[in-house]
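Notes, p. 3: input format for complexes.
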Amino acid sequence: MLAFAIRRLIEALLVMLAVALLAFVLFRYVGDPVSQMAGQDTSLEDRIRLRQELGLDDPVFVQFARFIANAVRLDFGISYQMKQPVLALLAERFPATIELALAAALLAVALGIPMGVYTGINRDSWLSKVFLTLSLIGVSLPTFLIGIILIYVFSVWLHLLPSFGRGEVVSVGAWHTGLLTASGLKALILPAITLGLFQMTLVTRLVRAEMLEVLRTDYIKFARARGLSNRAVHFGHALKNTLVPVITVIGLQLGAIIAFAIITETVFQWPGMGLMFIQAVQFADIPVMSAYLLLVAFLFVAINLIVDLVYVRIDPRIRILGRGQ
Amino acid sequence: MPEPVLSVRHLKVGFPTRRGTLTAVDGVSFDIAAGEVLGVVGESGAGKSLTGAAIIGLIEPPGRILGGEIYLGGQRIDTLTAEAMRKVRGRRIGTVFQDPLTSLNPLYPIGDQIVETIRTHTPLSRAAARKRAVALLRETGVQGAEERLDGYPHEFSGGMRQRVVLALALCAEPELLIADEPTTALDVSIQAQIIALLKRLAKERGTAVLIITHDMGVIAEMADRVSVMYSGRIVEIGPVREVVLSPRHPYTRGLMGSIPPLAARVPRLTQIPGAMPRLDAIPAGCAFHPRCPQAFDRCRVERPERLAVAPSCEAACWLYAVPRVAPAEVGA
Ligand SMILES: Nc1ncnc2c1ncn2[C@@H]1O[C@H](COP(=O)(O)OP(=O)(O)OP(=O)(O)O)[C@@H](O)[C@H]1O
Ligand code: SF4
Ligand SMILES: [Mg+2]
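Output follows (657 residues plus adenosine-5'-triphosphate):
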């Protein structure tokens, strides 16, 4: 188990290093940091001095090492556009994205798993067909369209829910949460549905496929031959086996949700990192862009790592494998 | 004669398709007495597994029982509700499938799976069920039963796993055990051990056993009677000695063709030229006639019924109909 964890950790670090290189290249070579930071009237000498101060004349690998050292200390530089440390900007936006992503993931799992299990067990019932048709629609509609439709129905037409923003936010320590106010919760509903719908249909279809697969296995046949109740067979034996691969995918999707939040945040003007990233792109705000890249990659890799370790805990076969190595 | 544990009458199993119903088991009848072992042999696709599945009420849809009756200890079970039938499975009928490697849920320790089964069928407490599980594993020859209770299936060898499966099948002391090719997936060296174990456990408990196999060695080793299936029907049934040493039905003769005296172990059934017909192309008359070296006119039009050919021995073949055909045509 420990060896397995260490191996996974090293792999994760390598991935992060690769992403850091990408972010560095972006940071260093797309656009000229000096011309971004200097005004129109900065003299040539000032520009050269700035170059030296920034260390832009050092060998590339020294610059890369410095870039990584800074990133590890969470120093991502100053935003060209906002003239503030990128870290402060990210910290301000981070909770909004995380709350949105978690709400969407919760929605996807809480509805997707039961729907998948139901449609897997009751293959031919009419309700299963309804679920599957809905999930087909969910998969095929683009996110922004779902968002716009929801806004049109629930905000413009029914006046039930707000169409943009995050509502009222309360600070809990450094964390600004919208989960504690009525307006914050109301504002969360539409974006969470928009972001979570695709994932929910994905989870439904995946769980259903896995369930059908598992129900065909010999150990399920044997469990029935032992006279276990349908409940024990479906929820005791089939479900756990179904969830082993599903957990992996859901975990990985959490990273995707955070990344895809860009679109939803744009549609709903949700003040998260995704929206900030889009604005940064418009202004060629390279430090913000590369910091966002690093952060999302970090979340991806961290989630991946956690999923792997959870997987090992659930499936004893892999536990043994890991122990053997 | 005491009432048989299992009594199957005119069992018919089929699959509805767009072009009519395919009949895979057609008019199968047999009895098994307490403590008796009935072996079922026949080529692949003869309907052996389907017969077993029909008895435990677990035919996979769209397949279903089309007709006939099944009695367990005198009680008709093929008409029971799904829930009532579930209580029969595991409790009164134990089942062992072919592949011990895939019969156990990989995510649960074997002890949990045994305890779960015991508690489904008996009012025992968790602790008592655990004790019983240990005793069962000891009985089925699992070394260090107590510690191995918490082991996962993949930590056991194939032979050990089949012992665990056997313990699971027997944990509620069923009156009937159905074993569908219980040794086919195992190493040859382990097959004999499992068969010996199966035989001993069944004898000790007086369990009736239906064992499906391709292995004539298994039949010779443990069966009292044997039933030969061809194309969904029983073509010959009788005591092992009779059927193996002096087979009456031409198909059985073909199967036993090259078998030397019973003592020599022949692992597999011999090949008969030709193939068993597909379900949608079962010929009229005797289903075996296209391959039968002794087929005559009647065989092509009329389906043979099972006829007594020797004491407690029956064969479905026109060669044995009275009035008999010319003696020259009988035997070979
Ligand atoms: N779902 C199904 N649909 C149509 N035909 C089926 C289905 N399941 C089984 N059959 C057919 O039923 C027949 C009997 O199958 P069965 O499994 O009982 O054979 P078997 O004698 O056990 O063969 P084997 O020795 O290969 O295990 C076969 O011809 C098979 O093709
Ligand atoms: S009935 Fe005819 S075809 Fe069938 S086995 Fe007997 S002799 Fe052969
Ligand atoms: Mg079979």
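Residues 87-324 of chain A form a domain with the MetI-like fold fold (CATH 1.10.3720.10).
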